[in-house]
Amino acid sequence: MPSLTIEQILLRAYQRIDKIDAHLLLQHILAVNHAFLLTHSDQMLTLEQTNHFLHWVLQRSEGVPIAYLTGQREFYDSVFKVSNAVLIPRPETELLVDLALNLTSTDRACRILDLGTGSGAIAITIAKHRTLSQVTAVDISVDAISIADWNAKNLCVSNVRFVIGNWFAELSDEKFDLIITNPPYVAENDPHLQQGDLRFEPKLALSADHSGMNCISHIIQTAPQYLEKDGWLLLEHGYDQADECKQLFKRVNFTNICSYPDLAGIMRVSGGQFSASS
Ligand code: GLN
User: Fold this and answer.
1) In the structure, how many helices (H) and strands (E) does the chain have?
2) Which one-letter DSSP state was computed for residue 274?
3) What pTM did the predictor assign?
4) SS3 assignment, position 77
5) Mind listing the pLDDT tens digit for each residue in 89-101?
């Protein structure tokens, strides 16, 4: 393959993949911004850059998510390393971070637990903004924990510790002021699992039995044992799961139960406070 200019290689890419995707991938390989691509269209690529880009174009044309090709995704105010061992952080999950930050403050030390941390995006972002607090981040996947640990070190966030475990199983008799989680909640027969990026993401992180409610209901039922009095549990859920979540919260005596909409107006996070000592 002879070397090509930026313009020539982009024209080839447009035949196979979305224009915006082509720009993002080439920007990443050349370590330049979008304006550079537009203003340096006659710059030659090295043979290595050409081959790298064409390989990515092929993979992208087969559906591989952009974030798994570039190995990173922005979330909140940081860039996180990702691989196909972890869910790609979603913009709607920033709601969970905002709500968690509203329940905590910069001048108070809280103990915070993130269940199913994946890339660590939620736990690390909260820890970064709440430096007096201690965040514990749990995931059952060793590969996920090693990515999350890398992200924390890369972002110089030291008030987060990582635990390999199945939800609460590896936590002894610790209590937390706030538990947050973005668990798997997509129903196993949901056609979305067969579409777009979801086809390439770990099933373990995406879908759950009982119409997607299995992990959510385990977490709501078990959380009271691990919450301080008046501690909060906040969880992300599917577009149609808010009412069921609120029922589960009620059943284990949570108060101030509420659901919160994401930017698309979909009830995306539900939560409550554990004030009862039943
Ligand atoms: N919100 C994601 C989706 O439907 C799923 C994330 C999850 O299961 N926690 O694409």
Assistant:
1) 11, 11
2) E
3) 0.95
4) coil
5) 999 999 999 999 9
